[in-house]
Amino acid sequence: MSGEQMAFHEMGAEFPEFDETPTELVVGPGDAADHQTKRWFGVSAFALLALAVGVFTAQGGLLLASALGMAFSGYGRLTSPPPVNLAIERTISDARPNPADEVTVSLTVTNDGDRPLPDLRLVDGVPDRAAVTGGSPRIATALRSGESTTIQYTIAATRGVHEFEPLTAIVRDVSGATERIASVEQGDAFACEPDLPSPTLDVPLRPQTTQYTGRTPADAGGDGVEFYATREYRMGDPMSRIDWNQTAKTGDMRTVEHRVERSVTVALLIDARPSADVSPGAGAGSTLERNLEAAREVAASLLAEGHAVGLAAFSEHDCWLPPAASDNHRIELRETLATHPAFSPGDEDADVSVFSVAQRLRQRLPSDAQVILFSPLVDDFVFRTTVRLDAHGHRTTVVSPDPTAADTSGHRLASVERRMRITRLRRRGLPVADWAFDESLAHAMARIRGGRSV
Amino acid sequence: MVAVNVDYETFDDSPSPTGLVLTVVPAAVAALASASFLPAVAVALLAVLVLTVGVRNASRSLVTLGAVVLFGAVLVAGASDAPLPFVLVGAGATVVAWDAGTNAITVGRQLGAVAETRRLQLVHSLATTGVAAVVGTVGYGAFRLATGGQPTAGVALLLLAVLLFSYLLDG
Q1: Which residues of chain B, if any, have pLDDT below 50?
Q2: pLDDT by residue (tens digit) across A144-153?
Q3: 8 Å CB contact of A141 and B61
Q4: Is the minimum CB–CB distance between A317 and chain B shorter than 8 Å?
Q5: Which residue from A73, A103, B26, B156 could staple onto B93, CB 3.0 to 4.6 Å apart?
Q6: Prediction pTM value
Q7: Are residues A239 and A289 in the same domain?
Q8: Do A170 and B110 touch (CB under 8 A)?
Q9: A422 with A293, same domain?
Q10: Residue B2 to residue A44, Cβ atoms within 8 A
């Protein structure tokens, strides 16, 4: 308990007879508990004051005023909350919204009991990570027997599965002296799965040599589209490939070789550790969401080019989707990126071993598979693991959302450390897209293509 | 790039305008009821102001202070020979104002200013006003019938007994 809260409680203790004791009961789902609000305790003081003045001045009217106060003191003691029997129905306008869509939630509460409820306060259990953007998920009302009321509010959908928390109902008797707090479990949920965007990104994969034809330029000549080199004619070269101009000029037969384009197996590796989910400030968005957004764009573009794309994550939950290129795989990839437990904000203290995740990834991946790491690079574990992955033959590209801010010297230090990690990675030949939060991913990726290393 | 910018609504826990009206109107009635004695009215109007500020700032202590001062003004008016029904109306209205004010603060803290709370506060204030009206009328009638020559001290002791009884009833 902080000092400020302590002070508040001590201050409250000075006027115990006038202060209604605040609601502090915590009730488990499906449970109810009663609680005395003591809100009429102060009235006795009014009554005694009137009694004293009445006796002193011998005014009968004041004694009557005192009786009034006493009646209220008794009023608070004699009423008790009616038995509560509520029927609750929640409707969600869209169970599968797109990101930034508004989801309208309607909550209808009916008093199914025989007696009227004079004082009913409801607080709907809005999902943990959802923000209410319109209306209020709370209502206070009075309901006759059989009567119902409806509240409507809107939630801005964000990625992931959102489960509603238990709803809290507080029923007071008509005087407000006793309140009954109940928690009602109503397991509704909605899931927001962002689509993979249309492929617009030019993903700079590392040069590669494998046997399958695809669209990534390999550093080898052969069948393809783009000119690569000419060489001496060898027996068996197709006629169409003979460079007739050169042959006519020199008399030697020359054959044109084209750059071979091959498909690549790529594993997207997402840094989903809670410790890496940092952000430069309110409104800049979480780094985990930016990692996932980048992964969606990269995956869409890679799949469109015919590459096999897999998925893994640094997380306490094991997340692994073997590389494939089918349409089914595309759907699976989208769902995994949206709803896998590895990508829901987890336990801050969870100990995630980056090394063992990387080791498992190495065992699962084909030996020539590339890795694209999405990480803010805020610590050395990820840095060292990346270097090691690359050294083991999994040529690695890093997309790094910049989470650093420059407002305090501590933040600036973290920013410098991160830039040094990036420089060290680049010096080892690993391309790094340093993605500022106000920049488009395509722009950050284009800087890798352009070969600018700083 | 899809940037999801969400305007988070911060939780506003101030009491609703309904609560303010339900506090100020009975408080003004109580002030009017003490109109037979001018200094009492002046103090009562000050108390109404304190109550208004108290509800607006969600300060329970200010609301209670305002109610105590208002009740004091009603008592002073009563002590200086105000008509009996006026004293009763003043005392009842003070309790109703205090009740509505503290209730508005609690409702604001529990549910916020945005939530629909009018019906609850109306029902609550109506119930309190009803109790005050019934007790006041019955008390007034009994007083008229029974005060034929009885000493005030006897009535006072009787009321004290009622108060103790109501405590014992609760255990």
Answers
A1: 1-7, 171
A2: 888 999 999 9
A3: no
A4: no
A5: B26
A6: 0.71
A7: no
A8: yes
A9: yes
A10: no
Backbone dihedral angles phi then psi of residue A141, each to the nearest 5 degrees: -155, 180
From chain B, pick out residues whose CB is under 8 angstroms from the CB of A139.
111, 115-117
Domain residue ranges of chain B, discontinuous segments joined by +: 17-134
Q: Tell me, yes or no, whether A44 lies in a domain.
A: no
Place of tokens 């769902």: A335
Among A335, A293, A340, CA closest to A315: A340
Structure tokens at A349: 């203290």
A322 and A419, same domain (yes or no): yes
Same domain as A382, residue A233: no
A46 domain-assigned? no
For A396-423, how does the pLDDT look when each residue is reduced to its tens digit (9 = 90+)? 999 998 888 888 888 889 889 999 999 9
CA distance B109 to chain A (A): 10
Q: Does the residue A2 lie in any domain?
A: no
Tell me whether residues B6 and A132 touch, CB distance under 8 A.
no
Question: In chain B, which residues have their Cβ closer than 8 Å to the Cβ of A440?
Answer: 1
**Number of domains chain A contains:** 3
pLDDT at residue A246 in the model: 82
Confidence of residue A11 (pLDDT cuts 50, 70, 90): very low
Q: Is residue A129 located within the same domain as residue A151? A: yes
Could you tell me if residue A146 is left (phi over 0), alpha (psi between -120 and 50 degrees) or otherwise beta? left
Structural domain includes residue A222 = yes
Q: Are A162 and A129 in contact (CB under 8 A)?
A: yes
Tell me the pairing of strands A117-125 and A165-172: antiparallel
**CB contact (8 A) between residue A54 and residue B156:** yes
The residue range of the domain holding A245 is: 213-262
* Low-confidence winner among A25-29, A145-149, A314-318, A408-412 (lowest mean pLDDT): A25-29
Domain check: are A100 and A244 in the same one?
no
CB-nearest partner of A140 from B79, B84, B111: B111
Between A388 and A212, name the one with better pLDDT: A388
Angle at alpha carbon of residue B142, lines to B140 and B147, rounded to 5° = 100
Indicate the DSSP class of residue A242.
Answer: B
